[in-house]
Amino acid sequence: MEDGILRTLKYAILGLISRKEMSGYDIAREFNAELANFWHAKHSQIYPELKKLTEEGLIEFDVKISGEVLEKKVYRLTPDGAAAFREWLVKDEELEPTPKDVFRLRMYFSNGMQAAECKKLIKAHLARRLRKLAYLIKCSEPYQEAVPNFHSDRFGDYIVLEGAIMRERSSIDWLEECLRLIDSVQA
Amino acid sequence: MEDGILRTLKYAILGLISRKEMSGYDIAREFNAELANFWHAKHSQIYPELKKLTEEGLIEFDVKISGEVLEKKVYRLTPDGAAAFREWLVKDEELEPTPKDVFRLRMYFSNGMQAAECKKLIKAHLARRLRKLAYLIKCSEPYQEAVPNFHSDRFGDYIVLEGAIMRERSSIDWLEECLRLIDSVQA
DNA sequence: TTCGGCATGTAACTCGTTACATGATTTT
DNA sequence: AAAATCATGTAACGAGTTACATGCCGAA
């Protein structure tokens, strides 16, 4: 009974490395691309974690040289690492606490604003959400012709992207509903 | 130009106290009731924050006695505190990074599972989400007869609850879509 | 009288961010 | 020659959790 704490970054990294060999830099790049729609991490968190996972014997690396001298550590899973990842992957966990949302917190206190102020705030937020939605839809274009096969790793990419789009649309619907409610309800 | 860091807990507490006088215990209770749908905090974080806000001159308290000796610190905003809260409330901020989601992370790596395993995991998660949705709908019942007026503090309660319901439905739609996709797409 | 809820706090720890620090390689 | 990107790390701090620690009050 270890791992009372979650260490999700650990498994995110193991999962990425299980797909293909990667350096810390590569991992950081992934965490700031499409993956960022449900997980992210900075290199300052990644490098120490890679060191720790190496010490725990879950991953190992070879040093590759780019150009003349620049060193690059390319990591892969050990059998222990692959087993640890597998075990985590199929674990059925309780719902996490709802993530914090500063905008919703503001809306909770909306009675402290003028209706006009509040609507302005919502409209600005809505514009950002619409831009984000447009970006996500653009990302999903390559998948629209044919849904990837379940056993390819593009299947995971595809479903989480679809999820992000649905989540974004739901936020937008809510914001529009808020605007309607304010108009219909202010004294 | 202070507050480069966010200190959102600070404003969540100021906002709660602005509605009515509260003790640390009361605040902790709020943070684990309906409010938990977009913000939460434990008493171990709240008490030190209250101390800090008092030192900063944003809140002040009277000690009330319950029964014979039990002391209770009832906090209220100072004028400075009210001003600081107002300023934060109407601030238009950038979109936050998408919140982390362990379940979506697992789905991203779904090609590491058998289709049957994956569907089982999704169904278990779906059941939890449906329970949560039922709970949220129950919470929203008191508001259904008449939408609260914009200037009452029940308006904020109402719209964030509606938002939580819409978000939950969107998650559920996505999970059902995932199940359909797996069925339609496995080799 | 015991149990659940009221009430307040601190300590140790994990997780995550920003900033500090360095240097090589490729592209313009 | 400069700028962007590749590449790896550490230090200091802020945010949040779990566990420790104490004690009162009201109801069954």
Give a verbal description of the structure.
The structure is a homodimer of 187-residue chains. Chain A is mainly alpha-helical and 187 residues long. Chain A is 60% helix and 9% strand. Chain A contains seven helices and two strands; from the N terminus they run H-H-H-E-E-H-H-H-H. In chain A, strands 1-2 form a two-stranded antiparallel sheet. In chain A, a hairpin with a 3-residue loop joins strand 1 and strand 2. In chain A, helix 1 crosses helix 4, helix 2 packs across helix 3 and helix 6 packs antiparallel against helix 7. The first copy, chain A, is elongated and about 70 Å long. Chain A starts with 7 loop residues before the first helix and ends with a helix. Chains A and B meet through helix 1, helix 4, helix 5, helix 6 and helix 7 of A and helix 1, helix 4, helix 5, helix 6 and helix 7 of B. The first copy, chain A, binds a DNA duplex (28 and 28 nucleotides) through helix 3 and strand 2.
Question: Outline of this structure?
Answer:
Chain A is mainly alpha-helical and 187 residues long. The first copy, chain A, contains seven helices and two strands; from the N terminus they run αααββαααα. A two-stranded antiparallel ribbon of chain A has the order 1-2.
Helix-strand blueprint:
2 copies of one chain form a homodimer.
Chain A: H1 8-19, H2 24-30, H3 43-55, E1 59-66, E2 70-77, H4 79-89, H5 102-108, H6 115-144, H7 154-185
Antiparallel strand pairs in A: 1-2
Chain A binds a DNA duplex (28 and 28 nucleotides) through helix 3 and strand 2.
